[in-house]
Amino acid sequence: xxxxxxxxxxxxxxxxxxxxxxxxxxxxxxxxxxxxxxxxxxxxxxxxxxxxxxxxxxxxxxxxxxxxxxxxxxxxxxxxxxxxxxxxxxxxxxxxxxxxxxxxxxxxxxxxx
Amino acid sequence: xxxxxxxxxxxxxxxxxxxxxxxxxxxxxxxxxxxxxxxxxxxxxxxxxxxxxxxxxxxxxxxxxxxxxxxxxxxxxxxxxxxxxxxxxxxxxxxxxxxxxxxxxxxxxx
Lengths: 113, 110
What we know:
Shape of chain B: globular
Strand content of chain B: over 45%
Order of helices and strands of chain A: EEEEEEEEEEE
Number of helices of chain A: 0
Radius of gyration of chain B: 13 Å
Shape of chain A: globular
Order of helices and strands of chain B: EEEEEEEEEEE
Largest interface: A-B, 24 and 24 residues
Oligomer: heterodimer
Distance between the termini of chain A: 38 Å
Helix content of chain A: under 10%
Number of strands of chain A: 11
Number of helices of chain B: 0
Largest sheet of chain A: 7 strands, mixed
Radius of gyration of chain A: 13 Å
């Protein structure tokens, strides 16, 4: 069966420091990969998605970037964190079909101080 | 882009009660999913349901695409059903580039 791993679970970083969050998927090949953010409150916002190695699309201009160095690895990065980057970051995967359901990792709770 | 609205925003139930959560969307969709976020933040996919009706245990969902709404039914609620329920949708060939609703926060009391 397919599993998705995301780490770390929690992170406290000072303003101006770099960020690297990693996500890996097991048990499937050619997945579509996604980074979502959930700010305080409820709504989830799509940040990045990828349909293949090296293919990244950004939905929202921001201080963050994403990379996909391997088929089942997705990385969210920042060179210099802002206070507004605090939030709950969720990696997700789906099959390559447009009708595949979306499955989330357990998330990383990021606090920028 | 598409707008997704959920109601009610908050719901308190006594254990054993039934409930209906509603999701309205502003345009035709070909991808509609329901998720449950537990109190620890974990998001679980409940249904992929762009149209029709599906059931999984005490949960069922119906999407009427022509009228732009979806309903999630919870029967015989349990305390473990507590959390936030999200509806998310996309249109055309957007796949899982989903727009999420604001969620319904459910608390089931013993």
